[in-house]
Design a protein that fits this description.
Layout: H1 13-21, H2 29-49, H3 61-97, H4 105-138, H5 146-171, H6 178-206
């Protein structure tokens, strides 16, 4: 019986980095974006874990616990998207491998390209959720954790932007239609709202300008 192949998120940090640096192609930018987003969520959970149970924060403990529960959902969704992104890329490779004279090739490439947009688009949504949760956590956790929440906000913004690149690089190769326009509009809306929110949060918590 052949050994079960490890999921990308089961690799050690070093193994993941080695795989990312290799010629394999997956994980790529999308998988890296999802992993970074999950780390942003993890920092939010850490801030909660170091707040819950402290007597001086007893009045917000229930709220912090709820934020942590939602944050953990975001974290695990983003981790799942590391592998989903890799799996979404494989049909695109198969489509491009079809002979150019094959009449089904063009449609196959379009379908696979639209499919490859789905995981990074989902990542963007989860990164937006992470930013909202980091904002909420910042108002309830210890000030000693301000730098960790600020780092989480900046990581979430970076992951959001990186995931958007993986959407736009695919939509730019597609013929324009309502689906493509809708995907791009959704991406623009998320970037326009949540990147500034994340940076503003980091600036507020860091107490100085965050470039």
């Amino acid at each position: 019986m052949a050994p079960t192949k490890k999921r990308l998120t089961e690799l050690s940090c070093e193994e993941f980095g080695d795989r990312l640096a290799s010629e394999e192609g997956v994980p790529g930018g999308g998988g890296a974006a999802a992993l970074v987003g999950s780390l942003a969520a993890a920092l939010c959970s850490m801030a909660g874990a170091l707040t819950v149970g402290k007597p001086r924060f007893a009045d917000v403990e229930q709220e912090v616990s709820q934020i942590m529960e939602e944050t953990e959902d975001v974290r695990f969704r983003l981790l799942a998207l590391v592998d989903d992104d890799a799996e979404g890329f494989l049909p695109l490779l198969d489509a491009y491998a079809l002979p150019r004279e094959d009449p089904s090739r063009a449609d196959a490439v379009v379908r696979a390209t639209k499919g490859a947009c789905m995981a990074p688009l989902a990542m963007m949504g989860e990164c937006c959720r992470a930013i909202v949760l980091l904002e909420e956590m910042s108002e309830r956790c210890s000030r000693l954790l301000a730098s960790d929440v600020a780092c989480g906000a900046l990581l979430a913004a970076a992951a959001l932007q990186a995931a958007s690149v993986n959407v736009f690089v695919n939509t730019s190769s597609l013929p324009g239609d309502d689906t493509v326009a809708s995907i791009e509009a959704a991406c623009d809306e998320m970037l326009d709202e949540f990147v500034p929110r994340a940076r503003a949060l980091a600036r507020r918590l860091a107490g100085r300008s965050v470039r």
